[in-house]
């Protein structure tokens, strides 16, 4: 049966689901020189993908309105200075993207992180074909980024109108695809963009590309989850400070006599839940 996007209620961008995949392992990795610079210099972020990354607004428009500048500006509201470079190729599939990614990483300088939004062309070109090959290709892209010391972030499929009439079946449902990207892409972090583009005005008449308004909205909505995935150590430190302050207030008798003292490790676990914010 065709996709039914209406089964999932729209989720405001402020509560977009974010997962820091294998969180303890990711933080335990040795800090590379590029990651150390993230705290003191602007983060160099590569946004890599297809025509949605390049900013095409129709099949003939060319790259008119990439979301990267809007993401870069919006990150400043989250105390992240960043240079976001958009590299998108119209029609690019995940299955043939690895040479392009290697070329960009080799020729464009030293990036700190890579945001990858790919796979729609693989799925839409063969809607009844299993998506295992697409997932394997995505995994190779993220492994390539991580092997070069970059933090890799996988972005799931947005609520693409073209999927509604694509005839996808079974595991090809949009939510299932995103769940598998989250679980199998082997990225440092995952962002589910469901609900970020709820309005018809966000999508062009071809039902494939975003409008200029859509790209602007998308870049802005990505900023909060991207910031949290780029600089998790800073959030960990803030969570620890808040937990310590709560414990101190409790010990000073500022909490009710019958209210239990909240342990610092419990507070940190709650503050580090990247599913809701």
Explain what the structure shows.
The protein is 41% helix and 10% strand. By secondary structure, the chain is of the alpha/beta class. Strands 1-6-5-4-2-3 form a six-stranded mixed sheet, with helices on both faces. Helix 5 runs parallel beside helix 7 and helix 10 (232-251) runs antiparallel to helix 11. The longest helix has 20 residues, at 232-251. The model is unreliable at 1-17, 20-39, 235-241, 244-251 and 254-277 (pLDDT under 50).
Summarize the structure.
With 277 residues, the protein is α/β, with parallel strands linked by helices. It has helices at 23-28, 33-37, 51-54, 68-75, 98-107, 120-125, 132-147, 174-184, 212-230, 232-251, 264-271, and strands at residues 18-19, 43-49, 82-88, 113-117, 151-155, 189-191.
């Amino acid at each position: 049966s065709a996709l039914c996007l209406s089964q999932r209620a729209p989720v405001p961008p402020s509560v977009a689901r974010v997962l820091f995949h294998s969180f303890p392992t990711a933080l335990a990795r040795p800090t590379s020189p590029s990651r150390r610079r993230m705290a003191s210099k602007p983060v160099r972020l590569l946004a890599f993908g297809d025509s949605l990354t390049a900013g095409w607004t129709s099949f003939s428009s060319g790259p008119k309105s990439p979301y990267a500048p809007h993401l870069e500006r919006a990150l400043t509201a989250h105390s992240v200075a960043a240079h976001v470079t958009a590299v998108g190729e119209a029609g690019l599939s995940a299955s043939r993207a690895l040479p392009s990614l290697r070329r960009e990483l080799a020729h464009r300088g030293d990036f700190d992180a890579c945001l990858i939004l790919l796979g729609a062309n693989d799925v839409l070109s063969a809607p009844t074909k299993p998506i295992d090959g697409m997932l394997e290709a995505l995994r190779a892209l993220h492994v390539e980024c991580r092997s070069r010391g970059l933090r890799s972030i996988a972005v799931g499929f947005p609520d693409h109108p073209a999927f509604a009439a694509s005839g996808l079946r079974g595991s090809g449902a949009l939510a299932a695809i995103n769940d598998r990207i989250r679980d199998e892409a082997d990225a440092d972090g995952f962002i589910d963009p469901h609900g970020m583009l709820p309005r018809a005005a966000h999508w062009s008449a071809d039902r494939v590309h975003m409008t200029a308004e859509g790209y602007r909205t998308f870049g802005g909505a990505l900023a909060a989850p991207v910031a949290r995935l780029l600089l998790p150590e800073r959030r960990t430190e803030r969570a620890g400070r808040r937990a310590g302050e709560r414990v101190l207030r409790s010990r000073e008798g500022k909490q009710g006599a019958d209210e239990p003292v909240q342990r610092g490790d419990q507070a940190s676990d709650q503050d580090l839940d990247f599913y809701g914010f």
